[in-house]
Model the fold of this input.
Amino acid sequence: MIFRKKGGRYSDRNVDKRKRTARVVLSYEDVPLDEYNDERTQISRVAVKRILIIAAVIVVMGLIIFAIANRDAFTPEKISNWVKYDVIGSSDNGFPVQIIGSNVTPGNFKCDGDVSYVSDTSYASVSSEGNEIGYNQHSFSKPVLETSANNVIIYNLGGNGYVVGTKDKLNDIKNTDNYVITADINSQGYYCVVTQTDGYLSKLHVFNNKGEKLYAYSFSEYYINSVSLNPNGTGCVACGVTGDNGSLLGIAYVLDFSEKEPVATYSLDETTAYECEYFNSNSVCIIGSDAAYTLDIRGAKLTEVEYGNKQLTAYDIDPNTNTFALSLSRSADGRKCSINYVNIYGEIINVNDTKRMIQSISIYKNRVAVLDSNRCYFFDTEGNAKGDVDAGTGAKAIKLENTDSVYILGINEIRKIVARD
Done:
């Protein structure tokens, strides 16, 4: 047995002494911890409450300032869409689809089953269910979009550069030596670009779907402002204008890429071509400022569709049925439009007189939709009314997906409306 001396190292009476000795060793800045703890400042509950109130006020004021600065983004409609699509995750067929960027012109709104558009900042494509297919940003100051089947070309009008690709993915931007005037792409991915050039008014550059250059031609007398590649990529039609004693004269060139020179030219009189498009490898439709035309390349026949004294307000071409629709106004302010349905031979197959001020028109098989202010009206190609629906605020353009559904280009979004008889 081990005996310990009274007051020894392990005796009970020295426990407090040992504790005090240890705490002195662990002191901070030569102050015993017991005293240090006693000197800590005690914050009253009232002071804490005041601090929390001040912090909350600062946060609330910051949120108010942020909301005022971004009030355009906090409209009831946008808040509803944010809750519906981002928070809840509801698709509702994906529509309405918010536009990326601040502006989309009607000409940059395309429909081929899917919907594609280019804004001032971005290109985007969405499916008929409203799901994203592709998205790319761009740096073009004046972007122009052309599509065919799954192929896409975007060029910088009056600038240097263009980009090609498919709806889901664009390739790298290609820079040009001269300003781009117009461009086109066909369903096989062949594309062409028309630029300004030294010593000539314009120059055509043609490439295959691998980006290899196939053909080039320089125009010395006419400024080419519209071009269309044929479906197999072996030729094109290029429309241009030139000045003549203060007037503009139009022309249509037919080019075969196996020939050095154009195989045919056709005068468009004083009409400036807005757009030309192939119905098939042998037939072309030309929409102009004062008349429209159909061109039979094999038969070397140009047929004019006169506007008379009417003003063209809108048009649409349907290669699926080899027809196109013209909205011609009988009034100087664009009201009282008549819809002319024209076939591949340049024959007017029907005229539908309306009281509408038609801003946009779309034709699909036997159905035609027109936009008047914020309302969409439907007709068949025989002129019979087939109903109307609200297109929504700020509607700028329409595109029929089929005989029942129409896409609406709004200011900030793309909507989809189903309207049945």
